[in-house]
Fold this protein.
Amino acid sequence: MKSIVKIFLFALITVVIIVFFAKQNYDSVIEQPNSDSSEKITLQIVSGESIESIIQKLVDSGILKEKWANYFKIYLRLNDISQRIQAGTYEIPKNLSIIEIAETIQRARGLDIWVTIPEGLRKDEIANILELELSKGNNQIFVEKDFLSLTTSKEYIDTLGFPYPLTDLEGFLFPDKYAFSVDATTQEVLTKFIDNFKKKVGTTDTYEDMIIASMVEREGYTSEDRPMIADIIKRRYQEGWLLQICATILYYKKDWEHVITTSDMKEKNPYNTYSNPGLPPTPISNPGLAAIKAVRNPIPNQYYYYIHDTDGNIHYAKTLTEHNNNIQKYLR
């Protein structure tokens, strides 16, 4: 009897472990983007079309990976979505997750406009992308100029409930994939960004942390160098060093490709961290979660300088002499 009980318990534990890891794998898959491409594919679902046919269309068009087809079918079944899929013509980006694809094909008109906002852009760049994509999707209500005006409107900002005073929403337009309706107003579009920021990031970081995260986003290239750079910037700031962040100058120039000159480093403007001590007055970009997490969890180190070579590899230095040697070695 004891041996039977042991066998039963062993089998039960084995099943529980298998189910646990299967569930973890399933949860991971349904939230992953299908692709890195934001290319939009036109997909038509006809009335009465079978789930198998719809899934095959998604796979054939590159919207859904073939190896994820069964996960998609399971997701539809578990969430009782099959009967809610609507016939219509849809514009679906390739970089949606299974959850997002399922949400999209439940909308009868299929007129949601998907817009992908990359990490590290200025608010004017984001506004420009929105204007272009929303107008292409036949939204004639959104106005780029009004969007930018709202980002500095005290009346609007005061309604958002941030725990610290804000005069500018630069840094809080969270980079992500967004679906907007054809009749979304300018304010509704902006509010969706802020709501997403609160959901994905929260409001526990200080404003100073958000400014640093915006610099880390522009200065860091990888998940390894961002926490290192975050620590360097924070220590330079805390110890009263000039930050000397090139990206702050580029932000003021409104040109990320501008070649910085000696005169740029001497120019009097509030974003020149080569001549002004402390942080710039606002974030210089809208950082993603990786940069924000790097500021929350910097990697302690003894460096004060860094450069990226032409291949994107980072080189650190403890002293100015070492830093200048790195410049001569890797950038000359």
About this structure: The first helix runs from residue 2 to 31. The first strand starts at residue 40 and ends at 45.
